[in-house]
Every structure is written in C-alpha cells, then in structure tokens.
Amino acid sequence: MKNIRVLRVVDGDTIICKMRDGEKERIRLIGVDTPETVHPKKKKEYYGQAASDYTKQVLENASIILEFENELRDGYGRLLAHVWVGGNNFQKMLLEGGYARAVFYHPNVKYQSEYKQYETSARNRGIGLWKQ
Length: 132
Fold this sequence. Notes:
This protein is α+β, with helices and mostly antiparallel strands. It has helices spanning about 50-60, 90-95, 110-125; strands at about 5-10, 15-20, 25-30, 30-35, 65, 80-85, 90, 100. The protein has one domain (about 5-130): CATH 2.40.50.90. The strands form two sheets. A five-stranded mixed beta barrel has the order 1-2-3-6-5. It has a two-stranded antiparallel ribbon with strand order 4-8. Strand 6 (about 80-85) and strand 7 form a beta hairpin. The chain is globular. It comes from Naegleria gruberi. Pfam families: SNase.
C-alpha cells in the first residue's frame, strides 16, 4: 500500500496512519520489538525513549509504504506491516541502530533472516540496546 501518511508515533514500533480511505489505523511493525514506553502495565524500559524518539524523528508526518504479509492483524486489532520510508526498510533502520530486537510470529516471517543479521550487527558493535 503506497503513500500512506504517518499521523502519530505511539512508540518505537507502533504508529498511527491515515489510510487511503481516510480512516486512521494503528500499525504494528512486523519483525521488531522496541523497549516499552507507553505500555499500561509495564514501566518504561531501558532505551525505549530513544527508540520512540528515533521513530518520531524518521516517521512522524512522513509518507510511507506499507508491506503486508500473511496475517494482517494482531490480537489487539492493529494492522501488521513492514514500513518503507524513502526507499528504506524502517525495521532494518531500527535494528541496525540498536533500537529494537528482531522478533517473529508465524506466519509473518518474510525478513526473518535479514532482521536477525541486522540485530546481530548492532549487538556486535555494542550500540543502542547493546551498549555494554
């Protein structure tokens, strides 16, 4: 789905977008998990604010492309998607910067091996979540 406008960033891995039909949708990024900042039952986690700030910096008010897989929604009713901004995979950007962990839930595993490699690279460089 092309040219979707990001209206608001909820946290590092969840955004709200205006869809082509004018409806607002909450989008959960497939394949990544950033530390919590707004979970109703959890405290803010280490590096969560940095991940949220990074997502805001890159995606807020941006025009994005959503790439869907097999399962379209999670148990909370959020759309599940890979996000492309400026020709770049945003999940890759989060992982390479050490802002997220790679996580997968079948059947949405298209980029599993690549995402794991990006996380490993950040971990080996000791950046973001992986600072020693």
